[in-house]
Amino acid sequence: MTIFTRLEQWKERDVISAEQRTLLAGLSRGERFSLFLELNILLYAGILAFVAGLGWTVSTWSQQLGDVLVLSILSAMLAACFWYCFSRAPAWSRGETSSPNFSFDYVLYLGSLIWSVELAYLEKRFQMLSGQWDLYLLATAGLFFFLAYRFDNRFVLSLALSSFAGWFGLTISRWPSHQDVAYRQYAILYSLVVAGAGAILQRRGLKPHFFGTYLNIAANVLFWALLSGVFNRDGYLVWLPCLLAACGASLAWGLARRQFSFVAYAAVYGYVGVSSILIHDIHSDTAVLSYFVITGVAMLVMLVAIARRFGREA
Amino acid sequence: MRAYSAFNQEALRARDLLKDWAGVGFLTEAQYQRMEQETVCELRRTNIFLRLVLFLFTLIIVGAAVALFFVTFLSEREMKTAGILLLIAAAFSYAAAELAVSRARLYRYGIEEALAVCSVGFLCAGMQAVLPHGAEFLVPAAGAVVSLWIWHRFGLPYASLAAMIFVVWLAGYWTSSHSAQHVIVAAFYAAGLATVAAVRRRHRFTYLNDQYSIAEALLWLGIYLTINLQLSSVNLLAQWWGGARTTTEFSRPFYWATFVLMWCLPPAVLTRGLRQKDRFVIAAGSIAAILTLVTNKPYLGWQRHSWDPILMGGLLIGVALFIRRWLADGPGEIRHGFTAQRLSGKDKRWMNAGATAFGLVSPSILSPSPQTGSSDFHLGGGDAGGGGANSNF
Q1: What chain B residue is nearest to A159 in terms of C-alpha separation?
Q2: What is the pTM of this model?
Q3: Burial of A287 from C-beta contacts in 10 A (0-12 / 13-18 / 19+)
Q4: Residues B49-94: tens digit of each pLDDT
Q5: Looking at CA atoms only, how far is residue B70 from chain A in angstroms?
Q6: Which 32-91 residues of chain B touch chain A by CB within 8 A?
Q7: Which end of chain B is less congested by CB atoms within 10 angstroms, N or C?
Q8: Domain residue ranges of chain A, discontinuous segments joined by +
C-alpha cells in the first residue's frame, strides 16, 4: 500500500482534510521540493571557506599589507556583521526564537570567526596582553556566550564552549609543572562546570533547548578524561570506578530521557575502559579473543534488550 | 529477491513521512498519533545511536570468534586451509544475516548489517588465500558482485559504495596503464548508472526511490572522481603525504579530455538532480561543482593564492543568497516546484545536530603554544583566538 493510497483512505475517513491530503500527496510526489538544507549547507561552507581564506591571506600578507590596513578591513567586516545582527534581531526571549531571516545566523557566525582572526592578529603583532592568551580566550568565550544567548545561535554556542575549553587547557599549560593528571582533572572540572551551568540555565528557563549541546560536549570531555585516567596504569583503580559511575549515570539519563546518544556513550566508553583493564595483563591470544566474544555477546544482548524496550524508533 | 516485503517497507516509509510532516506542522499531534498507529509493521528498527553500537559489537563478536577459531584449531597456519575456513565463515555470516532478517525481522538494526558486511570481508579474504596466482582478479570481482547482491537484497546504501570500491581494485588487475584503469572504472560506473537510471523510473514514488537515488548519486560522484585526475591519480596518497604532484603518467590528450569532462559533468549532474528533484543527485552535483572549482588551478598548473578560498567562499555565499532570494520572490515562495522553506521536521533536527557538531569541529580550537615573543603572525596551530579560524587547510 503506497503512501498515496493511505492518504486517500485517511481523507475518506476524515482523519485528514482534503486540503491536507492534496498538500501531503503533492509533497510525496515532489511537487514542492525544499532546498532548505542544501542552501544552509552552502552558506555554511561558504563562510568557512571565506574565513579560512581570510586567515590565510592575513597570515601570508600581513607584512606587505601593513597592520593598519589589515586591522581596518577586519574591523570593518566585524562591525558590519555585528551591526547587521543587532539591527535586525528580534526582541530577546528566554525561549527558542527563530532567526529573522535566512542569513542571520550565518552573519553572526561569520562575525564571531572574524573576531577570532582579528584578536589573534592583535595579540601576535602587538602582544597587548603580554601573551596572556588565556585571558583572550576567556573574554572570547564570554563574548560568544553572550552572542549565542542573545541571538539564539547554536553555532556560536559551540564556539563559546570550545573557547572555554581552550581557556581551561591553556591555564594549565602555563603552570611550570603541568602534567597529564592536571589536564585530566581540569577536563573533568570543565565537563562538570559545563554540565552544571547548562542544567542551571535550563532550570531557569534560559534557552533550555541549548541544554542538549552542553550535555553532549560535557559527556564526551568527561569520558575522554576518565578513559585517559583508566589507560594510565598508575592510578587506574581510582579512575575506573569514576568511569563506571559516569557510564551508569549516562545510561540512566539516556534511558530516562530517550536520548540514546548517552546510551551509546555509556556502552562504548565503558566497554573500552573496562576491557583495557581486564585484558592488559593477559598474554594468551585465546584468552583475549574469548574475552571479546563473551563480553561482546553480553553487550549485544544488553543493547538489544534496551533497543527492544526503549529505543524502537529511528 | 528482496529481504523485506514491499508492504513492510511502504509502511516504514509512511511512518517516516508522517514524522516529518508532523515535525513541520502539516499534521496535528492527534492526527499523527492516529495515523501512525495504522502504519505499524512487523519489522524491528532502532534509533541511529543504538544501530551504530550494535553494528560495532557485532563486528567485534564475529571478528573475534573467527580469530579464536583460527588460533584454537589451526596450529599450522596453512594459507589454503585458512582461506577455506574464511569462506565457510563468510557463508555462516551471510546465513546469520538472512536469519536475523527473516526470523528476528531486524531492519537497519546494526546486527544484520554487520553480519552482511563480515560476509563480504571474509569472502574476499578467503578467496585471496585460496586462489592461485593469476586469478586474484576474482577477489574484487566477487566482492563487487556480493556487495551488489547485499545492496539489492537488504537495501543497504553503503553496499553499493563497497561495490564501487571493488571495481577500482578490479581495474588494477586488468591493465597497468593508469589511463586505461580510469577509463575502465568510469565505464563500469557509467554502465551501473545507465542501469540504475533505467530501473528507477518505475519506482519514482515508491519506497525504492531513495535506495536508487543514493546509488545514482554515488555513481555520479564515482565517475566524477575517476575523471578528475587531480583527485584520483594513483599517486594521490603520496601527494597527501607531501610527495610531488605528478600527472605526467597520463598522455596530454587524455589529461585535457578529463579536464573538459571535469567541467561538463557537474552541470549535467545538477541539471538531472534538479529535473528529478532528487536530493542526493543534487548533492552529488554540488560537491562535484565545488571540487571542480577547487582543483581547476592545479589542473592548469597555476599557482594557488591565499585569497582563493575567499573567492570560493564569496561565490558559495552569493549563490546561496541569490537562490534563496530568487525562490522567495516566487508566488508563494515557490518557483518551478522548489522552495527554500522547511518542509520536513527532519531538516530542523539535522540543522541542530550539525550546528553543534560543526560549530565545534570546523574552526580549530585553541590551545596556543606558549608565547615565543616572535612578532610573526601565523594563524593555526592553536594561535587563533576564541572560535579561531586558522590557515591550516
Answers
A1: B387
A2: 0.88
A3: exposed
A4: 999 999 999 999 999 999 999 888 876 667 888 899 999 999 999 9
A5: 10
A6: 34-35, 38-39, 44-54, 56-58, 60-61, 63-65, 67-68, 71-72
A7: N
A8: 41-89+97-175
